Amino acid sequence: MLRLEKLVKTYKTGDQALKAVELEIPEGQVLALIGPSGAGKSTLIRCINRLVEPTSGKVYLGGVELTGLSSGNLRRERRRMGMIFQEYALVERLSVMENVLSGRLGYVGFWRSFLRRYPQSDIDEAFRLLDRVGLAHMADKRADELSGGQRQRVGICRALIQDPALLLVDEPTASLDPKTSRQIMRLICELCKERGLAAIINIHDVALAQMFVQRVIGLRFGAVEFDGPPEGLTPDVLTTIYGEEDWEATIEKVDEDDAEVAI
Amino acid sequence: MPVQDLKGRKVWQRRSGRESLGHWIMWLVGVAVFAYCWQQISASTTWFFVWDAPRIAEDIWTRATPPRWEYITQLGKPIWDTLNIATLGTFFALILAVPVAFLAASNTTPSKLFIRPFALLIIVSTRSINSLIWALLLIAIIGPGVFAGVIAIAIRSIGFCAKLLYEAIEEIDQTQVEAITATGASRWQVMAYGIVPQILPAFAGIAVFRWDINIRESTVLGLVGAGGIGLQLSSSLNVLAWPQVSLILLVILAAVVISEWVSAKVRGAII
Lengths: 263, 271
What we know:
The structure holds two protein chains of two kinds. Chain A is an alpha/beta fold. Helix content of chain A is 38%, strand content 22%. In chain A, helix 6 (148-160) packs parallel to helix 7 and helix 8 runs parallel beside helix 10. In chain A, 41% of the residues are buried. Chain B is mainly alpha-helical. Chain B has helices spanning 17-43, 47-64, 76-104, 115-128, 131-142, 146-170, 174-182, 187-221, 229-238, 242-270; strands at 3-6, 9-12. The longest helix of chain B has 35 residues, at 187-221. The mean pLDDT of chain B is 89.
């Protein structure tokens, strides 16, 4: 459903963030992208919806090639890719409802959005989503009044109301406490399952990734070093991705976590 | 080399010997320049007038007090004109400053190479000329009166408002803009949802701040014939009607105090 072909990004400073990345994601697959800071994880997902312009290579979403699209067509394709951000990236001074509805901006005209006259069907969907993530009573609050976990839920609603086929998720739990992190990851994965969405989730927390996803990609210096199921993340593999470290503790922790989740 | 080794002991001083000598010479030169300037100014001052100043000031004070209170009936209209000049001038300035600010901010300008320098030029040129001079020019062009005052205030304020606003635009949180862009929003929608909510408090603050300044500036515009209470002030000064002058100054003071109070209230409410 999503296919990257020889995707290269070289920044103006000469840093090569992505080195000919090849990746194919089938319909409905949730994938975790792990790797050290600066490995190019953020760049990779931003090159897909072209918040960052790739230097060369191709990105196919369904049958459409994205890197060569004109700005109008790119906007239309961006509607099919919901994005969830590390620091939530809500518009702080707008209400929760406005933030959720902003996910429909690609579908409504300027004046309708400017005057906040969204179609009733969009508003129904917004309430449905807010209810699904447990924030229906917060619709009228301003975004900056919410806690971190609540904000990220609003961010998830904003991405889902786009009716996307693919979710691009950039460090969704980096600024959340461990419990909320798990809840958010679980929510994202459940919603992907419910709606049959594919997702690429950038994540630092290897243990958390292993708990929830079907497939893990390890990125190092802009190149794919590992591609396989979460069980395949042995200490050796983690050493090739991150460098030398005692990995036994990390992996043991995963086992405990799994036990806890099972209860 | 502030750290010295004296018999195995480390001694720290703020400056090395050479540095403190340099400092001492700098001060010497500074004092010499000051003394020379003082002498020059003194030579070109008519000291008689300076020694005479307290007596003259006292003379004007006795002439100016008490203010001619009944003159207040003639000041209502001019002070109203002054308020209108300030308010309308600020209003027009803001309308023009918003697009200029968006063109000047490095993260929203359509072209950093061609349009941004042009917008910055507008900001610098309108800011660098005092509103009194703008008024003089405009009176020559569109004739004396309130309208010239409004335009003078507006032009003078564009640069100020646009500068503060474009700085606010450059300081916005870019991830919010990214998030809106990622939804497939158009350029204008990104502006309305990603940028405008972030700069709205700054915009309101700038508006009342400039309005407050413009009240003070517009009180003097009448001196050159651009309407408002300054007109009364200059005609009273011309006929040496000191009691009227003192009353006008009191009225201006009251207007400025009130405007300052209002703008403080408004800013407090927004932030």
